[in-house]
Structure formats: structure tokens, C-alpha cells
Amino acid sequence: MLKGNILTTDGWINGTVSVENGRVIALEGHIADPLANDDPYILPGFIDLHVHGGGGRDIMEGGDAADTVARQHARHGTTSLLATTMTAPRDELMQVVAGLGEQAKRCAAGSARVLGVHLEGPYINPGKLGAQPDAAAVAVRDEVLKYLELAPIRVVTIAPEISGHLDIISEMASRGVRVQLGHSLGTYDDAVNALKHGARGFTHLFNAMSPLHHRDPGMVGAALAHAEYAELIPDLLHVHPGAIRAAMRAIPRLYVVTDSTSAAGMPDGEYRLGSQHLTKCMGGVRLADGTLAGSTLTMDQALRNLVSLGIPLADVSNRLSRFPADYLGLEDRGRIARGAWADLVVLDREHALTATYVEGESIVEYA
Description:
Layout (H helix, E strand, L loop, with lengths): L1 E7 L2 E10 L2 E9 L9 E4 L1 E6 L1 E2 L2 E2 L6 H10 L3 E7 L5 H14 L9 E8 L20 H10 L2 E6 L6 H10 L3 E4 L6 H9 L4 E2 L15 H9 L2 E4 L8 H10 L2 E4 L12 E5 L2 E6 L2 E3 L12 H10 L4 H16 L15 E4 L5 E6 L2 E3 L4
């Protein structure tokens, strides 16, 4: 049983949450302003839908790398995540995805639950690679279906302007995959058309996509005008606080991701992102040419960053937990409610993480 200021689906209560067999079985308490007392905050565990690495390991390594990554992020309040791939040659990517399919069948002790895979590439525009390796490919139906056989592909990032990709978007959407637009030089009209074909979101909004101009609104303009969901990296390096505020006002269910690399939780130095070499320095990671290459962000720091901008804690919590769960159609994660998985985080009054529970299991080791 945990006691404190609990953010439930109906708002804040001061009381207790009881857990049995990994799920919430009871909530007791009274409606209360969490600022009116000194009790800790109890929030839904964080759900990160864009994770490349952490703890010195990269998802593209295969093997037990995903275990290390999931363990590292659990120490920072992430209770479930999507293992996110990089653009790579077909055979290499197939092998990595197959391994992640096995990983998603279990949850190692002390780790976040790997819900499945975010396939970020190879179906992107070679003119908007960002930090992705130069191995972009045009999506082919049989190849895409093979990936879906190998692992639970929950999210795919795709450039909609590439010939044939609208049909692929429709195919994947019909199979329950969340299709996101990103790493794209597409126009506003390309994005709107893709949304009509079943695309649901935008990958790391503002980054690696055609920008907003008042006479050429681009992918960003389409997202701000039409999207219900989009992911954003609030490390305060990728996106200016003013742009964050604009996106939050425009996109009802804008949600937080880390886009974290193997350098997350590690000292400054040299790391890898797929086949790319990175340097971590001054809180960020970059390629040799200075291009931002993912992040070192963790979800607990993302929360503190957004709170520091004056955004209410309950709103921030929704963007770290409930909205990503809703995006994937998960009704029993990302919220504190009877019958939901007991994925919980406890924060002190300064918003520092003091405890994490993954499906009722206490994570006792913190970075």
C-alpha cells in the first residue's frame, strides 16, 4: 500500500493505493489539492515510445542490450517502453527485430516492460536523415509484413511523400500499427493526405521534418493544424520552450518521448547510435558534424523540465503516461485506476524520483 497525493483518472486524491498480483485493486482517499500538504506525489509510471538506448547499450546491438536499456530507464521512472530501431540494411534490421520480438514476450526483473518495437526507418526520406544512417529504403508490402511477423511492431515512422508509401500507411494502419510521419521533406498536403490514409502521429515534432512557414506550412504546420497525437523531446535542446508551448496548445494529446541513446545515464564520452558514432558533451549527443543525434534525456528529467516551464504536474503526467498509453490503445496502463497495471512512480516535493513500481514490482536501484 502506498500513501500520498495520488493522480487518479478523476483527478488528485490524498489517500492510498493498494496493489495485488501486479494490478491496482483499491483506491481510497479524499479529493485534495496536492499543494496543500507535504505528502509525496504518486503518478502513473512513465511510458516512453521512442527509446534507442541507455546505460551504454544500443538497441541495434541485439542480444541482451534491450535488457540493459529497459533496466536503465526503469531507474528513471519508465515502466514501459518501445525499443526503437535505426535505419540499417534489411538483413541486419530483420535480425534485430526478431530478437526484440523475443524480448517483448518477457519482462526481466528490475526492468521496464518492453511493449514492442518502434521501427524508425528505414522508410524515411534520404534527404532528411537527421542522425539516421544513409540506408533509407522504399517500403515494400511483403517486407513490411515480415517485420510484423517477427515482433509486435507498435509504431512505424515513415516519410509519406515517397512513392508507394501511402498504400503502406493504409496497410499498416489497418493492422493496428500506429504510423507516424517523420524524417520527411513532405509538404503540408503530403502530411494531410497521409493522415487521411491512416497515419496517426508525428515523430519528434519539429525535428527532421519540413518546418512551418506561413506560406508553406510543411509537416510541422500539418501537425499543428490537424494532429491529435505527436511525440516531442523536451530536453530543451531539441525544441525551444516557446515551440513546446505552441505545440501543447495546438495538439490535444502531445506526448513526451526521450529519443534516448546509449549515452543516457552515462558520463561524457564516445557512444554509438546504430552504426553512427556519437559524442556526449554538455548534456547532449551529436554526430561529428554537430547534428543532434537523439538525446541523453530520461523521463523523470523530462517531467522536471516541463514543470520548470510552469506546466501543471497533472498535465505533464498525462503527457508522460496517459496519452502515450491511449495512443497505443492500452486501457490498463498509463493511469492509476482499479484493474490497471500497478505501474507507479513516487516523487518527492521537489519532483525527484523516490520509488518506481513496474507491474507492482519495486525497482530499488536508481542511477
